[in-house]
């Protein structure tokens, strides 16, 4: 589809430009003094309007001979030939228009028949055609740039989707292996607890699979998932594990990536509570401040515990997911001080009505 004819705004601007050209052509006819301004306008404006549409045919040549592939001399010869042809067609219709005006004697007060300098107008026609071709090449370049940007955005989106799926694939087995190891340990010591943990684990994975296909879920559901995980771990640790929550009610409707809190509480258990004989309390605090959402998970830890290289896998996955989804607008900060480990998520406080997903 022609980019000017298919866009009302572009067509309006284009026709206004040709209306100005029509007035200039009328001035060129009236300046020698042979005809008046009214006669010049009646002669020039319809000719300019007609030529504006004749020049639009150059679009198809522009498409057939893109600048980056064609030879410059070849292009010049092609458009000089097509410009000469277009200008000749324009002058033939202009000659017919002059003949009609003279035959109808619309301006009887004119001293003689209307006439134009066809050689001058032929040259003007070629120049105007080449100017329109230059504009059409600019439009073509702009559209190609826009399409390239759109393709880049689509490829970037597909890459982000692939990265998110890969990160989720890393998180789910990580939790599953730990849970199965816990069930295996409980089988001989406490069979009933092993059965209860299996049921809870099945329910957890049923919900996590449901939410895992979504890009975001309400914070309320994400917290419920995290609490389900801690309920599973509480069977293993018993009284050594307690949980404390302080959640701003206005934050429950905020959308967060699914399974974004679970790696934090899993890290709190496996690299905090697990290394303390007396256990401890995992504290979850959520605050919403304006357009930001803060999620904090704190747990006691043994400063002298052994540090394993794989201990940061869950936290690294969280960081990577945040970077993929929100770039620099979301982050995960961790710190450890005086036997207290703190992980804080900071991300945009988006709700369903404002989310772009």
Q: Could you characterize the architecture of this molecule?
A:
The protein has 357 residues and is α+β, with helices and mostly antiparallel strands. It has two domains: 8-151, no CATH class; 190-348, Heat Shock Protein 90. The protein contains nine helices and seven strands. It has helices at 8-30, 37-55, 58-64, 72-104, 118-189, 191-212, 219-237, 262-270, 313-326, and strands at 217-218, 241-247, 255-256, 280-289, 292-300, 331-337, 340-348. The strands form two sheets. It has a five-stranded mixed sheet, covered by helices on one side. A two-stranded antiparallel ribbon has the order 1-3. Strand 4 (280-289) and strand 5 (292-300) form a beta hairpin. Helix 4 (72-104) crosses helix 5 (118-189), helix 5 packs antiparallel against helix 6 (191-212) and helix 8 packs antiparallel against helix 9 (313-326). It is rod-shaped.
Which descriptors apply to this entry?
single chain; 357 residues; alpha+beta; Heat Shock Protein 90; 2 domains; five-stranded mixed β-sheet; two-stranded antiparallel ribbon; 9 helices; 7 strands; 61% helix; 13% strand
Structural class of the secondary elements? alpha+beta
Strand elements, count: 7
Question: What is the percentage of strand-forming residues?
Answer: 5-15%
Give the overall silhouette. rod-shaped
- Average pLDDT: 84
Number of domains: 2
Radius of gyration: 37 Å
Described by strand count, sense and barrel closure, the largest sheet is: 5 strands, mixed
Under CATH, the topology of the largest domain is which?
A: Heat Shock Protein 90
Order of helices and strands: HHHHHHEHEEHEEHEE
The largest beta-sheet arranges its strands as: 2-4-5-7-6
With helices defined by DSSP (H or I, 4 residues minimum), what is the helix count?
9
End-to-end span in angstroms? 32 Å
| CATH architecture type of the largest domain | 2-Layer Sandwich
What is the percent of helical residues?
Answer: 55-70%
The CATH homologous superfamily of the largest domain is named Histidine kinase-like ATPase, C-terminal domain
Low-pLDDT runs: none
Highest-level CATH class of the largest domain: Alpha Beta
């Amino acid at each position: 589809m022609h980019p000017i004819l298919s866009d009302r705004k572009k067509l309006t601007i284009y026709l206004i430009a040709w209306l100005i050209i029509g007035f200039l052509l009328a001035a060129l006819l009236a300046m020698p003094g042979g005809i008046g301004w009214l006669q010049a306008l009646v002669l020039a404006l319809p000719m300019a309007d007609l030529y504006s549409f004749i020049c639009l045919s150059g679009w198809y040549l522009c498409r057939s001979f893109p600048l980056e592939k064609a030879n410059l001399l070849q292009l010049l010869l092609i458009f000089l030939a097509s410009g000469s042809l277009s200008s000749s067609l324009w002058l033939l219709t202009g000659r017919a228009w002059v003949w009609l005006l003279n035959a109808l004697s619309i301006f009887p007060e004119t001293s003689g028949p209307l006439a134009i300098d066809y050689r001058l107008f032929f040259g003007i026609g070629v120049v105007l055609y080449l100017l329109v071709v230059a504009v059409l090449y600019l439009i073509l370049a702009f559209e190609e740039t826009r399409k390239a940007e759109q393709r880049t955005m689509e490829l970037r989106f597909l890459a982000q989707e692939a990265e998110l799926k890969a990160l989720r694939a890393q998180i789910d087995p990580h939790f599953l292996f730990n849970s199965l190891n816990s069930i295996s340990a409980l089988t001989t010591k406490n069979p009933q607890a092993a059965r209860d943990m299996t049921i809870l684990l099945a329910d957890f994975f049923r919900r996590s699979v449901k939410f895992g296909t979504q890009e975001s879920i309400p914070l309320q559901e994400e917290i419920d998932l995290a609490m389900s995980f801690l309920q599973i771990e509480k069977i293993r640790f018993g009284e050594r594990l307690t949980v404390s929550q302080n959640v701003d009610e206005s934050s429950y409707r905020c959308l967060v990536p699914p399974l974004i809190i679970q790696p934090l509480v899993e890290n709190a258990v496996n690299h905090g509570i697990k290394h303390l004989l007396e256990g401890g309390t995992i504290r979850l605090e959520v605050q919403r401040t304006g357009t930001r959402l803060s999620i904090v998970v704190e747990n006691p830890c043994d400063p002298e515990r052994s540090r394993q290289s794989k201990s940061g896998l869950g936290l690294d996955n969280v960081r990577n997911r945040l970077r993929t989804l929100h770039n620099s607008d979301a982050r995960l900060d961790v710190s450890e001080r005086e036997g207290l480990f703190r992980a804080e998520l900071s991300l945009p406080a988006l709700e369903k009505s404002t989310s772009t997903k």
